[in-house]
Design a protein that fits this description.
Layout: H1 3-29, H2 34-45, H3 50-53, H4 55-61, H5 68-89, H6 93-124, H7 131-135, H8 137-149, H9 153-162, H10 169-195, H11 207-239, H12 244-264, H13 271-280, H14 288-312, H15 322-346, H16 351-362, H17 365-377, H18 383-407
Length: 440
């Protein structure tokens, strides 16, 4: 890279950061997650608007095939490793045992119904999805299903914080239910991406064995984080008396190693930090200062740049397919809202609370955009499908916050009746752990 290339790279990152921060601030003032403003800012800065209004300016700032592309992409992905680590930290496996059947019912049914509907949409409308769907329809359908089944953990957390529900039972239970969505969605993503590995590294294995290997990787990484990573960080912090900066360095090393292992396993580097974050979530209270420092730096620098970059990668006007967007948004919303509503009613919630929970779980947010980007990067989907999935993530997130605020009663457990009319109550003395607030 020449001096001119490096100067251009710095200019690109500066413009992307400032535009992203401005867009995020505007959407935050409107009561929406900042990530949506960052994504929309990228669309304005990319070929959709700037490339149309002033092609010369866009080409000068982001020249096609330039040497800065590779370096800029690597810098952005490095930051997202830590973002996914922070998302993993939000997931407490202990809460699954604490809230048991209710959270499992909402999370599982809210994920499995969109999975089935997503696969049905791909097989029922084969010509709508482009040539990628014809090459490997099963893997393509699994990817679309995973994108539709996911719930944006960070967006849901932000809504619950705004409603002052995060530290109440309903907040902890919903975050627990979202764990099921995350595990199912990321497990399927691992299977799909492993099937699209480059020919020189891909091994000819059956889908069943590939699924088993992904499950083993998930379980092994979480166990390693919980039983090796967490004790190591505690030992280094107490015995070596590391300051906060030293602890951050040690945690960063674990994040990078887990990403390298995931990449070598023919999955995606993002999976490793996400799983190691789940394993280290038991240290959230002890290392809150260190994790908060990581969160502030990542949220202030890398997250805006990453989501702005998502808008730079596609022309959202040229690649907009109304029929495709309508199918993706319609199937995703109807399947998620109906299944979560039904599951919430089964779990004993009233009608308004059940519908509010449905809208909260319907938000795809940052995770939905990341999944779409990974699919396009690996050649699983084409640009029109990418645009449809991104718009689905944006639209569901825009709707979820105001709908949940309007529908969720002050006490969601006030009149929770089962279909048979039996009144159910949940203990109210269990508080959710104080979260590391993740942008998105």
């Amino acid at each position: 890279m020449t001096a001119n290339d490096f100067a251009l790279l710095l200019l690109q990152l500066t413009v992307m950061l400032l535009v992203g921060l401005a867009g995020g601030a505007v959407l935050r003032r409107l009561g929406q997650p900042a990530v949506l403003g960052e994504m929309l800012s990228g669309i304005l800065l990319g070929p959709t608007l700037l490339g149309w209004v002033s092609p010369g300016a866009f080409e000068a700032l982001f020249p096609a095939g330039d040497a800065t592309d590779l370096v800029r992409g690597a810098v952005i992905k490095l930051g997202m490793l830590f973002f996914l680590f922070l998302v993993g930290l939000e997931i407490s496996l202990a809460q699954v045992r604490r809230f048991g059947l209710r959270a499992m019912t909402i999370g599982a049914l809210g994920a499995l119904a969109p999975l089935a509907c997503g696969m049905g949409a791909v097989y029922a409308l084969p010509h709508l999805w482009g040539p990628q769907a014809e090459q490997n329809r099963l893997m393509f359908a699994l990817f679309i299903s995973a994108a539709m089944a996911n719930t944006a953990n960070p967006v849901l957390a932000r809504i619950l914080i705004d409603l002052k529900l995060m530290k109440q039972d309903i907040g902890a239970m919903l975050m627990t239910a979202s764990i099921v969505d995350d595990v199912i969605g990321w497990s399927l993503l691992g299977v799909v991406l492993s099937q699209f590995s480059p020919p020189e590294v891909a091994a000819p294995t059956s889908h069943l064995w590939q699924l088993a290997s992904v499950v083993l990787f998930f379980v092994g990484t979480i166990i390693a984080g919980r039983w090796i990573g967490a004790p190591l960080v505690r030992w280094a912090t107490t015995r070596l008396r590391l300051r906060s900066s030293g602890t951050i360095g040690l945690v960063a090393a674990l994040v990078l190693v887990s990403a390298a292992v995931a990449e070598r396993a023919h999955l995606h580097a993002f999976l490793g930090p996400f799983l190691i974050g789940i394993g280290l979530s038991i240290t959230t209270h002890e290392l809150h200062e260190a994790y908060e420092a990581i969160n502030r730096f990542v949220a202030g620098l890398f997250v805006p740049i990453y989501f702005v970059s998502m808008g730079l990668t596609a022309n959202f006007v040229r690649s907009f397919d109304l029929a495709l967007v309508a199918v993706v948004v319609g199937v995703a919303c109807v399947s998620k809202l109906a299944s979560v509503y039904a599951a919430s009613r089964i779990a004993g919630f009233g009608q308004r609370a059940a519908l509010g929970i449905g809208f909260g779980m319907n938000a795809r947010g940052a995770i939905g955009i990341i999944l779409a980007a990974l699919g396009r990067e690996h050649g699983v989907i084409n640009e029109p499908v990418y645009v449809a999935l991104v718009l689905m993530a944006v639209l569901t997130s825009l709707v979820s916050a105001p709908a949940m605020k309007h529908l969720m009663p002050d006490d969601p457990f006030a009149k929770p009746r089962s279909p048979g009319g039996a009144r159910r109550r949940m203990a109210t003395d269990i508080a959710a752990p104080e979260p590391i607030e993740v942008t998105g």
